[in-house]
Specification:
Blueprint (H helix, E strand, L loop, with lengths): L1 H14 L9 H5 L3 H14 L2 H21 L6 H22 L5 H8 L2 H4 L4 H12 L2 H13 L7 H17 L2 H10 L1 H11 L1 H18 L9 H32 L7 H29 L3 H15 L1 H16 L12 H25 L4 H11 L15
Length: 393
């Protein structure tokens, strides 16, 4: 599942030329019908969804790591805190090259998992649902709507950073790129809060911990009925939300009610969209899990497991591909390649990653970055070769 999530993350970044922030309006004007369809499909079915799956898996990993570390001497949370600190440093270095890095945010939010882990299952589930549908973000937006002009919440914020970003990737060298990324940390954090992505990410962390506590992935076959129910309920939530959303737009257009001109309509419809998005992520997770009960799909998805074992290495190397292809420091194809071509390039590069990961994992215990992370965590160089035994967590 982690390998599939990495493909979705890679695809959504590559489709929009590894952009950070809003795309220039003139790019949309030159979109073909095919590109417009791809952009819309990416927005509906890929953008943000696979990062959410990745976040869910991070929550499961946290639960499993803590359970494993409890078998060792000392406080398991101290070891975890050091481990997540190292991840933060890796993320900061990555963010210097590419502002959209998620590892640094995972590390920041990862520290909050320590006190949250003391919550009951019921509390964990309730809080996670509130966060994954971005209730805190919607409350902030409502307050802004009542106090300030609603149209200023996003548009005014994005004007200056968006223009600066476009100039950097199309004309800047490494010095300008590093400078832009380093000076844009405040903008990045502000966007994550305003958009609600930071709440959604943490919400899926908590859902992952909840799934770990319930043993859904440890007792895989016993939880099959649970996954079927999640898939079924999420499917009907998506259908219901889409019917309501489209009914609002149809009624407004047919009877000329003027609803779409009202900011409050956008606000209410966006809540429905958040519910739809969260349900779609859970549909993906439960659907992928149910496919693992089918032998043919186990074989088809087996190559993804090698990528998943080298998740951080693959994630960082995908950034290298993106920068070299689209930024001025590389070939400078930003905005010049068709979206269908970006999709094709993504598939080719991901297949290449899969082949390399399979070769690497057959010979070594860890991916390069995973090996470094683990070695620094335990203050001891871990055995890289398959011929040597891995020390216990």
């Amino acid at each position: 599942m982690r390998g599939v999530a990495l493909l979705g993350i890679f695809l959504t970044h590559m489709i929009t030329w590894y952009s950070v922030g809003p795309l220039p309006e003139d790019i949309f004007n030159h979109f073909s019908m095919v590109s417009k369809c791809i952009y819309k499909l990416n927005d509906l079915f890929i953008l943000g969804k696979f990062f959410a799956i990745f976040s869910f898996l991070f929550g499961i990993s946290f639960f499993l790591q803590i359970q494993s570390m409890k078998k060792m001497r000392g406080n398991p949370f101290n070891r975890y805190a050091w481990r997540i600190t190292i991840l933060g440093f890796i993320g900061i270095v990555h963010c210097t090259f590419w502002l959209n890095d998620i590892l640094s945010i995972y590390a920041l939010l990862g520290f909050l998992l320590i006190p949250v882990s003391k919550l009951s299952n019921r509390q964990l589930l309730i809080i996670s649902i509130i966060l994954v549908i971005n209730i805190p973000g919607k409350i902030m937006e409502l307050v802004h709507f009542l106090v300030v002009k609603p149209e200023n919440l996003y548009t005014d914020y994005w004007k200056a950073p968006g223009k600066s970003f476009y100039q950097t990737i199309t004309y800047g060298g490494w010095k300008e790129l590093f400078g832009f990324n380093w000076n844009s940390w405040a903008d990045k954090i502000r966007f994550l809060i305003i958009s609600g992505r930071i709440f959604i990410t943490f919400g899926f962390f908590l859902l992952g911990i909840y799934a770990g506590r319930m043993g859904w992935f440890q007792n895989f076959r016993e939880a099959k009925g649970t996954f079927k129910n999640i898939f079924k309920y999420c499917f009907w939530i998506i259908i219901g939300a889409e019917i309501i959303r489209n009914s609002v737009f149809w009624l407004d257009a047919h009877y000329k009610l003027g609803w779409t001109q009202e900011p409050m309509t956008d606000f209410l419809v966006s809540i429905l969209f958040n519910i739809l998005t969260a349900a779609l992520v859970c549909l993906y997770i439960s659907g992928l899990t149910l496919l693992m009960f089918v032998p043919k799909w186990q074989i088809r998805f087996s190559p993804f497991s090698k990528v998943g074992k080298m998740a951080i290495t693959c994630y960082l190397s995908q950034t290298v591909f993106g920068l070299l292809l689209f930024y001025h420091v590389g070939f400078g194809f930003f905005g010049k390649t068709a979206l269908w071509l970006n999709c094709l390039i993504t598939i080719v590069l991901f297949i290449l990653q899969t082949v390399l990961c399979r070769f690497w994992i057959n010979k070594f215990n860890f991916g390069p970055v995973e090996w470094l992370w683990r070695s620094l965590t335990y203050f001891k160089w871990q055995p890289m070769s398959k011929t040597k035994t891995i020390s216990e967590l």
